[in-house]
Amino acid sequence: MIKESGVMSAMCSRHEANTLEISSCEPKSDGRTARRHHQIDNGVDLNQKRKPGIGMIGQNNKNKEKHAQLSSPCRSEDGSLPCCTILESMTDGVFTVNLERRINTYFNRAAEEITGFTFQEAVNQFCFDILRSSTCQTNCPLERTLKTGKPVYNHPAVIITKAGKEIPVSVTTALVRNLTGEVVGAMEIFRDLSVIETLRKAVADFLPRAIVGRRKRGLRAPTAAWLRAPLPDFAAELLAETALREKGYFDPACVRRLLAEHRSGRHERTAELISVLCLQLWDEMFIRGRRP
Q: How remote is the C-alpha of 272 from its chain's centroid?
């Protein structure tokens, strides 16, 4: 439990297959707290009277009037769960589906904003009827994950919003299991790439296509090349036999061999040499108080 302003916030845990148990503590007039338990079965409070056709895995919603009253458990009075706070504050769309690929428990605010569909409109619908993605029928990441059990990361796709607008997205999927390890569905996270695509189009006339169209990647310093070139004076001194023996952390013969192998190209020794250099530099500055 997490204490917030004198009231214990709700926490969630799996109670049974496909069932979410919510426990919360509320203050009483005498200062004590009363514990309430709710079980949420795919969006339906089981403490209330069961209404057929609402929130049931694998069942169609046969009553549109009841469907309209269905709300996300993350936005109910008991929706102050840590997991809900994370889901509802994300800028990426998140939803879960059952084994039939029908949207069930979660369809967060970002998913609503990106697609234009509300939770009430999306729940119990097939995910492909809501996203209408370019990959839904031929290369669906969710279907692939449900069949293989393996997650899919950053799958490119284009979805069509409720208003008919095409939006480029990046899709990541993973299985959802209950406490016994049984697969009960899958989840999808989709990121709106509209701004990135707009920027790509803006620079398309100024940069090579290979750069504009490639995926995002980090910028790495050319450390390996630096270590093959003549070293700066301070680095050469720190890796010299005299300095290595003075500090006593490394065998000078071993360091000399690593440097020779790296410079000759026989082996890639960047990680080892940088580790040695950093420790030698740390000792020089913070143990001996000397500036290189």
A: 31
